[in-house]
Amino acid sequence: MRLGLVGKPNVGKSTLFSALTLAKVDIANYPFCTIDPNIGVAFVPLRFDCPCKGLREKLEAEGKISPVSPDDPRGGSICTPRTGACKKFRRLVPCHLVDVAGLVPGASEGRGRGNAFLNDLSSCDALIQVVDSANTTDIEGNPKVPEPETAHHSMLEEIQFLSGEIESWITGLIADGWSRGIRKIQAEGAKGLTKYLVDKLSGIGVSLHLINQSLESANIDIHSPWDWSEKDISDLAANIQKTAFPIVIAANKSDLSVHQPWNKLPNQQQIFPIMADTELALRRADKSGFIDYLPENASFELIDKINLTSSQEKGIQEMNRLLNLHEGTGIISLLQYVIFDLLDQVVVFPVQDDNQWIDGDGKILPDAFIVKNGIQTKDFAYHIHTELGDGFIRGTDARSKRTIGAEHSLSNQDVVKIHAKN
Ligand SMILES: Nc1nc2c(ncn2[C@@H]2O[C@H](COP(=O)(O)OP(=O)(O)O)[C@@H](O)[C@H]2O)c(=O)[nH]1
Ligand SMILES: [Mg+2]
What we know:
With 422 residues, the chain is α/β, with parallel strands linked by helices. Among the domains are: 169-244, Helicase, Ruva Protein, domain 3 (Orthogonal Bundle), CATH 1.10.8.470; 347-420, Roll (Ubiquitin-like (UB roll)), CATH 3.10.20.30. Helices cover 36% and strands 18% of the residues. Strand 13 and strand 14 (403-404) form a beta hairpin. Helix 9 (276-287) packs across helix 10. The longest helix has 25 residues, at 151-175. Bound molecules: guanosine-5'-diphosphate and magnesium ion.
C-alpha cells in the first residue's frame, strides 16, 4: 500500500508526512520510519480489535494463561507482530507514504517539476490531496493575507486543478501517436484499443484491469475509437484518473478555518478537515514523554507536569483546546477511509498453525496483510510468498477450522492457514 501526499506548495504536506512517520521506538522492524527524505512508513490502527484478543479469551478460558494484569505494558495483547505493533488489542499496520513536492499549475506541460512530479504519482495506489482550508496561500502556494471567508472557492480551485493536471497528463499520453495507433486498432478491433492503452499507460502504473474498468465506466463507444473526438479522449482520461489515481481531500489548517468551508463545496467528494501541525506537535510531545496520546483520540493524558516550561505548558493547553474543539485532528480516520473504504482493502492474518495461530517460530499472529476485499485464497498465498502460491493445496479458516479452496473469497479479519507442497 502506498499513498501519495499531493497538493500545491505550503499546504502542509511535509508537516503531515513528518507527523505520520514519527512513531514511537517500540514499533517492530521499523527503527526509522523515514526511508527516503520523501518516502516513509505510517502506522495505521485497524478499525477492529486484533484477533489476539479473541485468542487471549480462549486461552484464559482454557486456563492456559492468566487474566491481564493491570501493570501489563501491552494492555493484554499477546500477538508478536513482525512489523508494526499491538497494544490493548490496537494493532498497527504499516503503510507507505510519499511526500510529493512541486505541484504547480501546468505540471502536465512541464512546469515546476513537471513530469518528474507526475511520475512520482505513478507508484501510488491513491492520493491524499492536502488543500489549504484557511485560504492563506494563492494557487501557486505563495503566502498571502488569509481570506477564510472565501476559502470554499479557493479549495474548489485547488481540487479541480489537481484532477485536471492528472487528466491532461493522461490525455497527453493517450494522444501521443494516436493517429498512427488508430490504424492498428482498426485492424484489431476492441482488443487493439486495450492493447494500445496498456502500451501507453503501463509506464505510469495503470494496469489492464484498471483500463478495462475505465473503458466500461466512460460514456464512449469503445467499438469505434477512430470516431472519437478530443473530448472523448479526455473523458476516458478523466475516468482513468478516477480509477487509477483516486483522490481524497484533506482540508488542512482547519484550526484556522472558522467557516467550515468543506461544508460549502458543491460536489459530493469526501473531505476530511485535518490539523497536520497539531498532530505533529502532539506526536512530538508524546515521543518526548510529556503526554500520552493515541492519534485517533480527541484527548491526551498529561504525564510529566512538573518538568514543563511555561511555554511548553501553554503549547499543551492550546493542543488540548484544539483537540476538544475539533474532536481530534482527523488524520487517522482519513487514512482508514482511504485504505479500507476508498481502496476497499481488508486485513487477513496468515498463520502456520491454525490451532495456536502461530508461525514456524512460535510468533503469535505475526502478520496482518492489507489485501483487496474478496481476494481468493490462492492469490492470498501468492501475496505471502511465490512458493506458497505455486505449491498451493488448500486453505483452512483458522476460526471455523473449515477447509477453503483456491477460489474462496477471503474477508476482513480472517485468520488463514495455507497448506502447500514444499
Ligand atoms: N495553522 C496551521 N498551519 C499549518 C498546518 N499544517 C501545516 N501548517 C503550516 O503550513 C506551512 C507549510 O507547511 P509544509 O508542511 O512545509 O507545506 P508543504 O509545502 O505542502 O510541504 C508551515 O508553516 C506549517 O507550519 C495546520 O494544520 N495548521
Ligand atoms: Mg513540503
